[in-house]
Amino acid sequence: MSFLMNLNEGTQFIIQIIIVILCLFFGARRGGMALGLLGGVALVIFAFGFHIAPTSPAVDVMLTILAVVSASATLQASGGLEVMLQIAEKILRKNPRFVSILAPLVTCTLTVLCGTGHVVYTVLPIIYDISIKNNIRPERPMAASSVCAQLGIIASPVSVAVVTLTAFLVNSKSHLAGFDGYIDLLKITIPATYLAVIIVGIYSMFRGKSLDKDKAFQERLKDPEFKANLYGTSGESSLIGKKLAKRQWAAMWIFLGAIVIVAILGYFKELRPVFNVGGKEKVMSMVDIIQIFMLLTGTVILIFTKTDAAKISQNAIFKSGMIALVAIFGISWMANTMFSVHLDMMKHLLGGVIIAHPWTYAIMLFVISYFINSQAAALVAFVPLALSIGVSPGIIVAFAPACYAYYILPIYPSDLAAIQFDRSGTTHIGKFVINHSFIFPGLIGVISSCIFGYIIASFAGYVHL
Q1: C-alpha 230: how far from chain center
Q2: How far apart are CA 42 and CA 44, in angstroms?
Q3: Contacts of 313 (CB under 8 A, 6+ apart)
Q4: Whose C-alpha in 2, 112, 295, 437 is 20 to 30 A from the C-alpha of 321?
Q5: For 388-437, what is each residue's pLDDT tens digit?
Q6: Beta strands of 88-206 (E only): which ranges?
Q7: How many whole angstroms separate alpha carbon 201 and alpha carbon 147?
Q8: Is the dihedral of CA 9, 15, 18, 20 positive or negative?
């Protein structure tokens, strides 16, 4: 394969980018850990075919993910997550008229607190039950809730995406004035995300025909079997009235308390330990803070709630977290290795365009997220390259929500779950596939959160309007 080394740089780059895209495409289609494992195929070709020296994997990012996922999975194993879900259900059932706005806010908040959008599965049946029994088109809150659960990832202090982006920005050679990572990032993404969720909710209140005016729905309602299945029983998935143990409440408060402590340490730098390293004083980094406190959180929950440690690795949060870890391992190593030898060319091709038109960064990140099917993995694949070719860290912060694009095709598990839980059939995939229930809530959510992110970042002094 030595002939590959004799090709000019442009041809080599085109061949290598095709290899990367193919790995991402087939990895996304196979799902699960395939996305990360296929990175090894590209690395073999790069190393043995093009003689490109592999760079170092994103170890700090992966270790932080491992710590955060361990703490979140311990929370689920302890039953603390059930407490959050019960509180969420009470809020929704007390205000059924506004379920199209409240449900997306609830699913987004659960994601922000837990760091994963997979918590939405338990809430979806409750949202459907409230909607159908109040004659509200289920598509309205169901589609919005699924989308907003994913929007919340970039606003979560314990999500893989936020941890990943923080690590890249803090360790970047291009330091952003006034930006110390973590809390400074969340000060942009949290308000931008919630403002976008509210807009998605308002739009959802009026989308589609009301059930009494939907001729197709009314025709199906004439079928006794459909009608019987439509309403079901309110107790199918309800947590209302279920008495939860004190240890479950304790687990929730321990977890939330840890998030607050990490946030305080992120905001008040003077509270962090200072070490003498090589004769220079160095403040403990937020990456280390997050790792240590997440491991501590899991330990405290285990001790005080007497949680069975064997259950931690068996639940959904741990499994999805480990899949994300492998994906980031393979994708980041593959992408960094390829781009490392083409930085000068990339600066020449893309640097000027993105600097002159900052919004093009958001579009590129959006497209990559669509192919990769993961927010954290999209950030891992593109942010280091963007920083290396001169993109301002302020632009990266402002357009962080652009890393969510996998609603374009309705293949993500939470979207498919929303379709399955909606027995009315209003949450659906259209005849042309692309015209499905999630496309407009997704576009509205991402575009508006990027706009708000840019505005808020400008007030913070990170970018200039």
Answers
A1: 32
A2: 5
A3: 73
A4: 437
A5: 888 888 999 999 999 999 888 776 778 878 888 888 889 888 777 778 89
A6: none
A7: 11
A8: negative
Token pair for 282: 């160095």
| Tokens matching residue 52 | 């490109």
DSSP 412: S
Greatest CA separation for the chain: 80
Within 172-245, residue ranges assigned H as helices are: 183-205, 215-220, 224-231
Split at pLDDT 50, 70, 90, the class of 328 is: confident
Residues 6+ apart with CB under 8 A from 71: 158, 255, 258, 294, 295, 297, 298, 301
User: What are the residues whose beta carbons fall under 8 Å from the beta carbon of 139, sequence distance 6 or more?
Assistant: 207, 208, 422, 424, 426, 427, 428, 437
- Tokens at 243, concatenated: 């008495």
Q: How far, in Å, CA of 244 to CA of 223, rounded?
A: 39
Give the CA dihedral 313, 319, 324, 329, nearest 10 degrees. Answer: 50
Torsional sign, CA 449, 455, 458, 460: negative
pLDDT digit string, tens, across residues 144-164: 999 999 999 999 987 878 888
Nearest to 294 by CA among 66, 458, 140: 66
Q: Which two tokens stand for residue 227?
A: 């009608």
Average pLDDT over residues 241-258: 90
The SS3 assignment for 7 reads: coil
How big is the CA angle at 119 (ends 70 and 197), to the nearest 5 degrees?
120
For 211-246, what is each residue's pLDDT tens digit?
Answer: 888 888 888 888 887 877 787 654 555 677 788 899
Cα–Cα distances in angstroms (integers) from residue 41 to residues 19, 26, 34, 325, 394, in the given order: 9, 12, 11, 18, 34
Tell me: the pLDDT tens digits for 85-143? Answer: 888 888 888 888 899 999 999 999 989 988 777 778 778 888 988 898 888 999 999 99
Judge whether residue 195 has pLDDT over 90: yes
DSSP structural state of residue 422: -
pLDDT score of 442: 96
For residues 188 and 456, the answer to whether their CB atoms sit within 8 Å is yes
CA angle 129, 134, 140 (to 5 degrees): 70
